[in-house]
Amino acid sequence: MKKTYNIGIVGVGGQGLLTLGEVIGLAAMFSGLDVSVSEIHGMSQRGGSVVVYVRIGEEPSPIIPSGGADTMLALELIEAARYVNLLRKGGYLIANDFIWPPPLSKYPPRESLLKALESVEAKIYLYDANRASVEIVGSPVSANIALLGFALGVNPELSELVKLESVEKALGEVFKGRTLDVNLKLLRSAYSEGVKVCKGERT
Amino acid sequence: MSEHPLLKRKGEVALLLGNEAIARATLESDICVATAYPGTPSTEILEALSEVAEYCGLYVEWSVNEKTAFEVAYGAAIAGLRSLTSMKHVGLNVASDILMSSAYSGVEAGMVVVSADDPSMHSSQNEQDNRWYGFLAHLPVIEPSNAREAYVLTKKAYELSEKYKIPVILRTTTRVSHTRMPVLLEQDVNLNRQCRGVFKQNFERWVLVPGNARRRKLELMKTWRSIVESEGVEPFIKVLNPGSKKAIVASGVAYSYVKEALELLGMFDKVTVVKVNMPVPLPVKPLKEVLELVDEVLVVEELDPIVEMQVKSIAQSAGFKGVIRGKDLVPASYELSLEPVYKAVAEFVGAPSKTPWESAGAPKMETPIPSRPPVLCAGCPHRNTFYVLKVAANKAGLRNPIYTGDIGCYTLGYQKPFEMQHTCFEMGGSVGVANGLAKSVDNPVIAIIGDSTFFHAGIPPAINAVYNNSNIVIVVLDNMTTAMTGHQPHPGVGVSATGKRTARVLPEKILEAIGYKVHVINTLRVKEAIEEAFRAFEEYKRGERVAIVSRMRCALEVLRDARRQKITLPIYSVLEEKCTGCLACINLTGCPAIILEHGSKKPRIMPEVCAGCGLCASICPYKAIVISNTPTQGYERLWWEV
Which of B204, B266, B490, B527 pairs as cysteine with B452 (C-beta 3.0–4.6 A)? Predict the structure, then answer.
């Protein structure tokens, strides 16, 4: 039995987590791999804490166990902190440098969140995916795709399994027209930024 | 249309949600009628079908509730057309009356009833195990272990339904319904289906008066026994690696965890595994054969010990002397996952129960991570309504009103700052329970119910309140869609499941016909709405029968339409110089677009989140919140017109 490669996607409902899961699932499928993408739906999840499990392997079961995620894509830092224990020791945390506090809540400041994240045993990469999306798409709506592009750049485990070309093809299934064009541009640009960081120009 | 993922050709592989896989399978099964009331995690089945229905020549509808949905599909099935009805687990409670009778009278063409259960209650008020309904109705229950099997088993379910001429229950759970997997398509979708049926009069069969029902009951029991005896075959049950001394029986999604746990333990070919896809009724013969060879059995299933009880019963009649374990090792509450199943399986096979995963660890936080429950979206009309009702009730001097609540996004009004959903039980319960509270306490009782929920189950208790003189106010929150499940149309919208214009049924007309004086309020205009609601509450205090219909569209639909029609909505921002930092905007609305950043005493509105409803601006005592862009003239109509 080949080892299953597990990707946890976390963030706030409405940030495009389900789309991101579908894109990675399609990309895995286009790479000839079996995959399972487990989501939680319902509009009431908007604004709530959301986790999507992507498992690439042979007929995998749907849920990643705690400590079982090889990579975590976090679209928001409070959610990164909430779910980081899903990550295996030495796994990759690629997090959007963005905080969206829950309404009426007391929340830790960015510095203490980052300090706390650094206390876990993981390879941590921060990326301002909202900014990247604003620059190319005009709004933060595609931060999910930016984060994926960056993750493929910094994480060779991921990009060996799910090729950039497969992700591009997957975007073509999910988006059309101008939306597709800008998302492809964003994906490639974020990927290049990731590759740069990976080559030692660490942010 | 032929590019639609649901219409891919035979031999292609599609990444399908379990629900989409079921939809595709029903298309391949040549169904003619599909019906549903939306409910998580079942919704995408009918949603997917509605997108291709006209192209494929089948009829789909969003029915007014699950009982009606079932009846419509059953009407087709007794006229000889294959049909589908799908619903969430609690929806089957609503449809259970006809479910029971449909088993007695049976079908002329295949009918599949999808019950999408929600263990862990991701989006539900309970986690009932609907496999019980199989016993209650004497109907077989099919349970796939993943999306791919959902595809194959749906097609088998139609064959089974026609073989025995009874409806078949296809029970899924959230992690089957909402998990995508690549599915290899076995057949093309027939675009020339023949969908005219024939109803053959048969009083003995279709008219369940006691004399007929008695005869039908005996027929049904004969069918039931026949299924128990004859269907112990693949794909309903499969025995892997027979001959071991230990057997694990796993039903539905539990099989996927058992399989992976055994593989991780290196034991997959060392233990007998009974993979169950028909948990009710559990076929006897294959189980008996397994029990003859093993000493120990572990049953793994999500929620209730339904297979376990049957295995124990079979074991007793077979004189089995070994040990049968199940819910003593496997949790009976919440959904299963790999970890608890791994531990149970490891203990059962005598392996160390320490799991093979080593976590990166939990971060050491000084300030605890705040919880993040779902919240009303920025611009949500329910926020405006809760605010308006609260202010108007205060103004009218209603003391300690009880706000009974219902099922929908607005249930989130139980949270701070509103705390205006004091109950939430089931569809329509706001109005029904309000009737009882009004008879029992002296507080004002205000029932708050969504538009779709009102049509679903709110009308009979509204009639009851008039007939039995219960002193309540009914507030219908009309956001002109079924929002929580992803924006399905309903009778109040005037649009069908396939997007066609149709008759519009207005809640205020119904309420007026029943005998209420109805105040329709528009909560985008906050101050006017408060005045109107105040008048309604004054009338209520005088003992009049009043209802309020609060009409303002779901913000997510408004945002979507604004994007499509290139209309600029207002974006609000806080004027630093005017803002005193009183935080009324945050504390009175709980809007997720308004945040207080660390080190700042004044709030900031996130422009990318603000939907431009203006509630905060109308609340701000210092007029410090203003529109910061140039909205399109007449943008307001988006909030009222579909």
Answer: B490
- List the CATH number of the domain containing B504: 3.40.50.970
Question: Residue B182: which of A34, A47, A49 has the nearest Cβ?
Answer: A34
Q: Cβ of A26 and B15 within 8 Å?
A: yes
- Mutate: best of B4, B123, B335, B369, partner A, most A CBs <10 A: B369
Same domain, B250 and B220: no
Is B1 a residue whose pLDDT tops 80?
Answer: no
Which chain A residue has the Cα nearest residue B4?
A173
**A104–B367: do the CB atoms touch at under 8 Å?**
no
Q: Which of B294, B329, B349 is the last residue of a domain?
A: B349
- Verify that B534 and B622 share a domain, yes or no: no
Q: Confirm if B420 and B448 have CB atoms less than 8 A apart.
A: yes
Judgement on whether residues B74 and B128 belong to the same structural domain of the protein: yes
Chain B residues close to A50, C-beta within 8 Å: none
* B18, B150 Cβ separation under 8 angstroms: yes
Give me the pLDDT at residue A120, please. Answer: 96
- pLDDT for B72-89, tens place per residue? 999 999 999 999 999 999
Give the total number of structural domains in chain B: 4
User: B225 and B242 in one domain?
Assistant: no
Q: Which of A63, A62, A119, A111 is nearest to A89 (CA)?
A: A119
Assigned fold of A5-198: Pyruvate-ferredoxin Oxidoreductase; domain 3 (3.40.920)
- For β-strands B83-88 and B111-117, DSSP reports them as parallel
- Residue-wise pLDDT for A61-115, tens only, equals 999 999 999 999 999 999 999 999 999 999 999 999 999 999 888 999 999 999 9
ipTM value, please give it.
0.96
For residues B173 and B313, membership in a common domain is answered with no
Cβ separation B15–A61 shorter than 8 A: no
> B255 in a domain, yes or no?
yes
Sequence ranges of the domains in chain A: 5-198
Residue A24 Cα distances to A3, A80, A94, B150, angstroms:
18, 19, 15, 22
CB of B69 closer than 8 Å to CB of B96: no
Q: Which residues of B touch A64 (CB under 8 A)?
A: 338
Kindly report whether the global pTM for this prediction surpasses the value 0.90.
Answer: yes
* Residues of A in Cβ contact (< 8 Å) with B416: 104
Asked if B597 and B454 sit in the same domain, the reply is: no
Contact between B113 and B169 under an 8 Å Cβ cutoff? The reply is yes
Determine the residue of chain A that is closest to B411 in CA distance.
A44
Q: Are A150 and A190 in contact (CB under 8 A)?
A: yes
What are the tens digits of pLDDT across the range B140-176?
999 999 999 999 999 999 999 999 999 999 999 999 9
Using the structure block, give the residue that is written with the tokens 């799991």.
Answer: B355
Domain that residue B245 falls in: 237-349
B449 and B548 fall within a common domain: yes
